[in-house]
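debug: dumping io for the single-chain case to check the tokenizer round-trip. Nothing else runs in this session.
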Amino acid sequence: MSDKQKKPQKLKARLPRGFVDRSAADIHATNEMVEKIREVYERYGFDPVETPLFEYTDALGKFLPDADRPNEGVFSLQDDDDQWMSLRYDLTAPLARHVAENFNEIQLPFRTYRAGYVFRNEKPGPGRFRQFMQFDADTVGAPGVQADAEMCMMMADTMEALGIKRGDYVIRVNNRKVLDGVMEAIGLGGEENAGRRLNVLRAIDKLDKFGPEGVKLLLGEGRKDESGDFTKGAGLDERQISFILKVVANERFVDGEEEVAFNDANKQSGGFAEGFAELDLIRSLVTSAGYGPDRIKIDPSVVRGLEYYTGPVYEAELTFDVTNEKGEKVVFGSVGGGGRYDGLVSRFMGQPVPATGFSIGVSRLMTALKNLGKLGQDEVLGPVLVTVMDGDVESMGRYQRFTQALRSEGIRAEMYQGNWKKFGNQLKYADRRGSPIAIIQGGDERAEGVVQIKDLIEGKRLSGEIDDNAAWREARVAQETVAEADLVAKVKEILAAQAEDRRRAKDI
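debug: decoded output
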């Protein structure tokens, strides 16, 4: 047996399931998008606030600890004082905690926005991640539905600020009171019917996908799809199904037994007609402000946020087609939504605190904008590279001075920090980095007080047009010699010309 010790195994580099690394291009595209959203929110008078990634688990509301480890849906750990903490599941529950904890200091109505990552302890899949970014806006302390109407208008303005034209999006609005009234009217009120209610609401939510006939099957005995797979239905009778389909089609009942059902729904839930009245008011407010049904549409088929929403609910939906991973044309669908949640802050306060807000799914919306060609079209421009020809202290000081002079004028720049003795590697590095310009100064140039400026983008283009090496050397393509004092001005001139070329290329 060998006395030599076995080499320790190398640690395997691997990502946790459901998480992704982000490239520079993705980060730049996200920052660009988030800044456009922020501008709209600020214009509406909203201010930023930030809450931590962790909250005490019981503060999250939906996921109260009911086992030794409360990790159903959330990532949890136990603090040294035996209290359970969880990574935030969304940005709304942490805001409710923040408002309650600082209630005496904040000014009501409290108008705020937040952007940040949220975490779901759920099974990952294609396009379904355990960490993703949301961007929320909320108004706390405003009881009237005019605050909900304003949220819908801000959602519409945000879509257009991101370059999504009218006709490619719609903000769909419903009311939780209407949905609750529907359930009461068809005899599915009470806790004992919670499971059946969920099946009915899931069926209603499929209206865009399957149409009225498909939903009718899902509300009844069930539906078989093209592959032969069967989905069990909610088991409702014809009268119940007819009532639901008329409500979600936004038909008002004026005669017959459905009028009776409508009145019964209002009597039993106490809010059915109130929900419709609030929808009518929202329609009136947004129409008066110039937002027609092509932008904001009343749609009682919207099913959203059943955990804590108490009034109007709304959803931003993109209506254009995209090609999915199977090569099929599909409607992109929802990229965000929200609604009124008057009970969430009240859990901490013991008094009613009205609130409404919405959340944009940043990662999903970014995918949509890329499909539209509105985002991520520009390559990330690398830094101007100051190359290193000599390693003595005086030369290094000059190279660093050139670099700092460029940075001081707002130009992205770096001095080469690798093995400078192989100059060819420096230009390869510049190419991989996407650097637009290389600055070169050897001993001869230093003695004359000049630098060579190499336009790497123009040089790459012209290199395809000159086949002969001798002609290439003679032409000294895209390379100029300028005095040290003119370095910054010449770099600015070349960068401006490159930017103009990119602009013209976009317009072709």
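debug: round-trip ok. The mean pLDDT is 85.
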